[in-house]
Amino acid sequence: MGFFDNHGLSFRQKQALESDRDTDLFGIEQAYKEAKIPEIESEKELERSLKYGLEAAPSIGDRTISTFTREPRPAHAGIPTFLRTPFLEDVRRVGEYDVAFMGVPFDIGTTYRAGARFGPEAMRRISKLYTSYSYEKGVDLKESLKMCDIGDVFTIANIEKSFDQIFKAVSHVFSQGTLPIMLGGDHAIGYPCLRGIAEHVDGNVGIIHMDRHLDLQEKDMDERMHTTPWFHATNIPNAPPENLVQVGIGGWQVPREAVKNVRKFNTTVVTIDDIERLGIDRVADIALEKAWKGAKAVYLSVDIDSFDSGFVPGTGWPEPGGFLPREGLQFVDRVAREGICGMELVEVSPPYDVSDQTALLGTRIIADVLAAMVDAGKLGKKFT
Ligand SMILES: [Mn+2]
């Protein structure tokens, strides 16, 4: 009798026959997987919030709400640490944690538009949108990892002295058996970050570097700018250039001087055309093989400008034609599943960003890397 009597006839008939196939969907599978993830830490957090933040006013029906926000609700409230992890004031205690996030608010290595010193602040703020749970990964970071935000490295208006500060900071965290995650900052920090890790690795360190640019010059404008980190990092005796894999390179911003060094040092370069031709999985295989060959650990350096400039307006040297977000996320997932010894996310420049989208993609990459490591059993030993 209704106008909809003849709607969906073929599917009405099939419905019963096909319903079992729902379970083929990853989307459904993950919904069931969620039931197996504990909520112990969330419950503890809620208890603390009511204890320290006071129970809510009597008129409020939801008694999980406190008077002062202490747990991660609502998203627009609270003092932002990265992914709402606890701020660790005493960095001497960093060894109690699986992961430590540190800001590196340094951008005097930029050669065009600056602003990456505000990257850590922007990523911390937009990371408030994230829960600690990822549907696709089937991981709740809070329930699997001891994480903290140790604040920012005190960088100053001198590149070399700032390198010394960054080196000391990364070295301290890594020496305590904690995974250091650096929120940049411009890409010049790649050298001191890698150096801080390499000095504690009893063997070679491979580098997987996502970028549109090679960053392989010895100097730029007479200084070790953000165009130079891998020249210097691969001069570290246990970080040989043969273990440096540079992925996403291309476009019109790659200086010929840097290209000459690809040949000279025998680094591995993967362009976006290679990705188009071979696919992310094959490219990830190549990157992992090269980076891990004879190495004991692999470092992940992600320049946010490795993504197509349409997705990352907030960066110093945007270039069209880079990774699409899904491709980049798939790539870092593959890399992270083998395990990484440290990671930097650089070149988020909030003054040029639009609706925080560059900072959000940076945050997403880090969160996905951690979830992939947890899922693959490569991180979380300190969690009890
Ligand atoms: Mn770059």
UniProtKB/TrEMBL annotation:
SUPFAM superfamilies: Arginase/deacetylase (SSF52768). InterPro entries: Ureohydrolase (IPR006035), Ureohydrolase_dom_sf (IPR023696). Pfam families: Arginase. One of its GO terms (biological process) is putrescine biosynthetic process from arginine, via agmatine. Transmembrane segments: none annotated. PROSITE patterns: ARGINASE_2 (PS51409). It comes from the Bacteria. Belongs to the arginase family. This is Agmatinase family protein. It comes from Natronobacillus azotifigens. The lineage of its organism: Bacteria, Bacillati, Bacillota, Bacilli, Bacillales.
